Amino acid sequence: MNTRLLRTTTFRLALGYLALFAGSVLLIFGFIYWTTVGYMGAQLDDAIDSEIVGLSEQYRERGLEGLATSIRQRIARDPGGSEVYLLTAPDFRPLVGNLDRWPSDTENEDGWVGFELRDRTTPRGDVYVARARHFRLSGGFHLLVGRDSRVIHEAQRLILRALGWGLAITLALGIGGGLLLSRGTLRRLEAINRTSREIMAGDLSRRVPTRGTEDDFDQLAQNLNAMLGRIEALMAEIRHVTDGIAHDLRSPLTRLRNRLDTIRQRSSDRDEVRRLAAECTAEADQLLATFNALLRIAEAESRRGRIGFTTVDLTSVVRDAVELYEPVAQEKRQTIWTNLAANARVSGDPHLLVQALANLLDNAIKYSPEGARITLTLSAADDRIELTVADSGPGVPDEARDKLTGRFYRLDTSRSTPGSGLGLSLVAAVAQLHDARLTLGSNQPGLRVTLAFPRSPRS
User: Fold this and answer.
1) What is the pLDDT of residue 413?
2) I need a labelling partner for 192 at 20 to 30 A (CA). Which of 75, 84, 237, 420 fits?
């Protein structure tokens, strides 16, 4: 037998339930034993009392001789029966009955006495226990009337035998069932452990197998598979981010290094040094902006930002953002048109919400042509608040929209435009932090970005 089965939690639970069930069986059979034997004993005592009453009537009506005749007749009707009769003189000398002497056992206060008898009707002379009652007649005579209790003892043996077999069957079924359950559970757990070992060995595509039964193990496997899928996606994103950082930062770092080298070589030309130093500072600022954007995205995705959550009026946030970016749009002769609902409050971090809206406005202005109109719409419903930023730029192909929120992802048409490809990544992280739904759609032409926030309970 595999000792691992005996160490499983399922087998231990099965043993616990087995002990509980065996205890219940003992209690039930004990109650049956007590009630059955007690009932049969009470019936036996009632029969003896009735017999004594009948013989007493015979004695009063017909005297000693009539009583003796009645006893002889009853013994003759059933010589090997279960009745016990003995009529004795005042000195306990037997007069009539199927006992040759008065029992030597001590009787209780009510006259009841139990004693052993040998069955004379069988060759083996089996010994059995009889129960009788002593009744004193007038004139000093003694009458003993009883019955043997073989029926009661036979019932006791049957109940005890049934109890033994019941416990044996219960233990056998319990242990067998525990082993079967443990084996099935062990197989399911071994599948999970095997998959875990393969994943730890580097195969992130492995998943825990399911049986389609929708039981607890299937639900656990589905949750584990969802977690593994998320881990695999995060690992792929980390690789993508690493590649993006290496690709996007290599050029500015190379330019920064070349300019510093030029400064070193042309240290005598102060005007040239100042120009190159300014360019180095701009390159450094761009690098710092990229890393700050990455840090803000990481902070939003870690959900630590929820600590600073408060009730935010999105209407005020949109107005402030429009006021900030309107001069930038006017330089391209663009118009920012707004349609803002009142009382649009959400629970969130005001700084992150301002940053997300600023990124959306910056992209809309950057990618829209001169003279275009940018629309900001803020609508409030019973359970949600929707913020939409729509531009009239070149738009995004349908197959590329799902990739826009990835870090450092940029369309080929926007490679020449300044930026790091982190704007929509930050917007997606802020939306996830605020339990908002981010939707990218076509504005025909242009891009339409919608953030659907759950309404704040206090709004």
Assistant:
1) 44
2) 237
Helices (H) then strands (E): counts for the chain: 8, 12
Residues 189 and 121: their CA atoms lie apart, in Å, by 68
Q: Is there a single domain that holds both residue 349 and residue 267?
A: no
CA 380 – CA 345 distance, rounded (Å): 9
Phi, psi of 39 (to 5 degrees): -65, -45
SS3 202: coil
**Whole-angstrom distance, CA of residue 263 vs CA of residue 277:** 8
Q: Is residue 293 part of a domain?
A: yes
pLDDT tens-digit series, residues 320-355: 888 888 888 888 888 888 888 877 888 887 888 888
- 362 shares a domain with 229: no
Look at residue 8 in the predicted model and tell me its pLDDT. 63
Beta bridge partners of 338: 376
Q: Retrieve residue 322's tokens.
A: 């429009």
Half-sphere exposure of 276 (CA within 13 A, CB side): 19
Which residue is it, tokens 């525990």? 178
Mean pLDDT of 117-134: 71
Confidence grade of residue 296 (pLDDT, cut at 50, 70, 90) = low
- Asked whether 111 and 45 are in contact (CB, 8 A), the reply is no
| Residue 22 sits in the same domain as residue 34 | yes
Helix, strand or coil for residue 147? strand
Q: How far is CA 11 from CA 1, 5, 108, 174, in A?
A: 13, 7, 53, 10
Distances (CA, A) of 209 to 187, 233, 348, 433: 11, 19, 40, 32
Give the pLDDT confidence of 354-390 residue by residue, as tens digits.
888 888 888 888 888 888 888 888 888 777 888 888 8
DSSP secondary structure string for all residues of 407-459:
TT---GGGTTSS--S-HHHHHHHHHHHTTPEEEEEE-SSSEEEEEEEEPPTT-
State whether 344 and 413 are in the same domain.
yes
Q: Are residues 331 and 425 in the same domain?
A: yes
Tens of pLDDT, residues 136-180: 888 888 888 888 777 777 777 888 888 888 788 878 887 777 777
**How many Cβ atoms sit within 10 Å of the Cβ of residue 288?**
10
Looking at the whole model, is its pTM more than 0.85? no
| Residues 6 or more apart whose Cβ sits within 8 Å of residue 175 | 14, 15, 18
Residue 412 has a pLDDT of: 44
The H-or-E segment that residue 213 falls in is none
Q: Which of 240, 268, 301 is the last residue of a domain?
A: 301
Q: Is residue 389 part of a domain?
A: yes
pLDDT the model gives residue 416: 43
pLDDT at res. 420:
52
